[in-house]
Amino acid sequence: MSIATGTRGEPVTPAADTVDIVALLERGRTLSSPVLRAAVDRLAPPMDTVAAYHFGWIDAEGRPSDGDGGKAVRPALALLSAEAAGAAAEVGIPGAVAVELVHNFSLLHDDLMDGDEQRRHRDTVWKVHGPAQAILVGDALFALANELLLEIGTVEAGRATRRLTTATRKLIDGQAQDISYEHRERVTVEECLEMEGNKTGALLACAVSIGAVLGGADDHTADTLESYGYHLGLAFQAVDDLLGIWGDPEATGKQTWSDLRQRKKSLPVVAALAAGGPASERLGELLAADAKSNDFDTFSEEEFATRAALIEEAGGREWTSQEARRQHAIAIEALNGVDMPEQVRAQLVALADFVVVRKR
Amino acid sequence: MSIATGTRGEPVTPAADTVDIVALLERGRTLSSPVLRAAVDRLAPPMDTVAAYHFGWIDAEGRPSDGDGGKAVRPALALLSAEAAGAAAEVGIPGAVAVELVHNFSLLHDDLMDGDEQRRHRDTVWKVHGPAQAILVGDALFALANELLLEIGTVEAGRATRRLTTATRKLIDGQAQDISYEHRERVTVEECLEMEGNKTGALLACAVSIGAVLGGADDHTADTLESYGYHLGLAFQAVDDLLGIWGDPEATGKQTWSDLRQRKKSLPVVAALAAGGPASERLGELLAADAKSNDFDTFSEEEFATRAALIEEAGGREWTSQEARRQHAIAIEALNGVDMPEQVRAQLVALADFVVVRKR
């Protein structure tokens, strides 16, 4: 599946095509991982073990594991963020780790609230260790994120923590909206975009400003970097919404038609419902009936495939793909508002390209 | 029930007996309540409503309610804390509210983890609004606490937030210990005290330092005030443990034998088990059998009464009552390490007295 490409089939960003994305993500992972592990080691038993399982460092039996730690886009962004402010990449490390801790706090709680049984090809924490541990370890990671930043003790660290707190509040608002939308028959495209901006945009925005703030950047610079991150987050989420319906389970680690099974009012769905026309109307009727159905949990693959086909026919898939490109373009444009080393700019552009063409 | 009194039947603290405790608690409530309500109003729907229910401001149907907001010991302490550092009581208000937010974050999550259906004479949030809202609103209150402090933007506010974060981590550690102890056959008195220090001592300690830190106190002053608060917390919890078994349901708002029903390894229980002798041994046998019993949920009042009587006979009730007095004395003694206005000292002493003689 090619989601967001230029007419030549590749993202059109000349300055960025020399960037080694794999190396960039690897740097973020390599520099932040030891600090993340040391932070998690601070947790009292059994929370340290539960967290290590969540991060994929051990399996359900406690044996060392080489789990899939995710794409590590946020740590890479946090380090670039420090460099964008003229500081060393290392200055961004506590920010990178704090953002990862908050992200994983939200995953632990969201998986439980949403009843998701699988993440990153493995059983979720609440399935393996029970709901109480999922709540508790989520709480602990959130607290740890603040602790890590505040123990730096500088004014900059205080400002960074405040931005992280604001992002976390938006994250929680977004989850609240997400839950309430699942119980509503109709959600507008605008509501969906607001929810996704809260759930995904806010923390990515914070990742891109936190390193700069720790490096002494002023509020204008931080706000502009956040604008890039926010729209990058919306692009990221649009791609996620496409993968949530049409993604390859092998790559995503989720079930087929994952978001449809959960009745998620994701972008392709709300865009299809808003489009009008026969496919849109038929889709609306089906989803309204689904909401009242007692048999929904036993639906066959074919029934979800029918819904996915209607979403596509009504234009929801194409609209979302275009939305990913739109948000990608706004993100890149925002970077013009900040003076930064050209190499850093090229890397931020390359990361934005990567986010919209990823397959998982 | 008279729990912790001197030989004359009243707490022996001459300087404190002129303090009007009701007015002191009322001041804390009156000054912090509008700020707390304004903070909760920041939450996106439906979290604002769920939080308002939790705080007792509305009932389950959303009608205004004059609920029981608790004793408000922490807000009173936070304001006195500011005054102990020579600042105006008002300086402590954001600290008082932040501590209350963290306290209520932990109540929301703990009630869900522990399966507690009642708090302050009302159904708990997860019973009324579902587990997802209990998780989400808890998270939001925790984030709000940090937001409220950090938006002050001063170095002092950063230090106050760091102390609150440390206390929150201990709170979470304590809940983790509490949960794990419920699944163990034996818990030592030391383990129980450590758990209670984390669960109750740490946040009370923070309440007593946070106003002072916001008022510019140095670390020594803050640490010394925290020592008073920590031991006051242990005294508070010892009394709570007594009320959890022998408290009057009318006053506490909990079921009879509440902690026994939940198999809590609270102080009277662990002290009784550690005491040795026939009653202690019989109690140990009963509790070991209870842990394996499938009928535990259908136990009669009488079966719990038998266990309570054995705890008392083995000396667990008297030991815990003495422990409350011991911790109360250490708390009062700690106050000698800080220079503060004598009126403030007398009020802190009076609050300590109040905590150990309370009935709920």
CATH superfamily of chain A: Farnesyl Diphosphate Synthase
Rg value of chain A: 20 Å
One letter per element, helices H and strands E, the order of chain A comes to: HHHHEEHHHHHHHHHHHH
Query: What do the pLDDT scores of chain A average to?
Result: 92
Give the CA-based shape of chain A: globular
Oligomer state of the chains in this structure: homodimer
Beta-strand fraction estimate of chain A: under 5%
Sheet/helix structural class of chain A: mainly alpha
The description of the largest β-sheet of chain A is:
2 strands, antiparallel
Q: In percent, how helical is the residue content of chain A?
A: 55-70%
Number of E strands of chain A: 2
How many domains is the backbone of chain A divided into? 1
- Count of helix runs of chain A: 16
Strand order of the largest sheet of chain A: 1-2
> Which fold name is given in CATH as the topology of chain A?
Farnesyl Diphosphate Synthase
Largest interface: A-B, 39 and 39 residues
- Measured between the Cα atoms of the first and last residue of chain A, the distance is 11 Å
Low-confidence stretches of chain A: 1-14
CATH class of chain A: Mainly Alpha
CATH-defined architecture of chain A: Orthogonal Bundle
Describe, in plain words, how this protein is organized in 3D.
The structure is a homodimer of 360-residue chains. Chain A is mainly α. The first copy, chain A, has one domain: Farnesyl Diphosphate Synthase (Orthogonal Bundle). Helix content of chain A is 70%, strand content 1%. Chain A has a two-stranded antiparallel sheet. In chain A, a hairpin with a 2-residue loop joins strand 1 (118-119) and strand 2. The longest helix of chain A has 28 residues, at 155-182. Residues 1-14 of chain A have low confidence and may be disordered. The A-B interface holds A 44-47, 105, 109, 112-113, 131-132, 135-136, 138-140, 142-144, 146-147, 150-151, 153, 155, 157-158, 161-162, 165-166, 168-169, 172-173, 175-177, 179-180 and B 44-47, 105, 109, 112-113, 131-132, 135-136, 138-140, 142-144, 146-147, 150-151, 153, 155, 157-158, 161-162, 165-166, 168-169, 172-173, 175-177, 179-180.
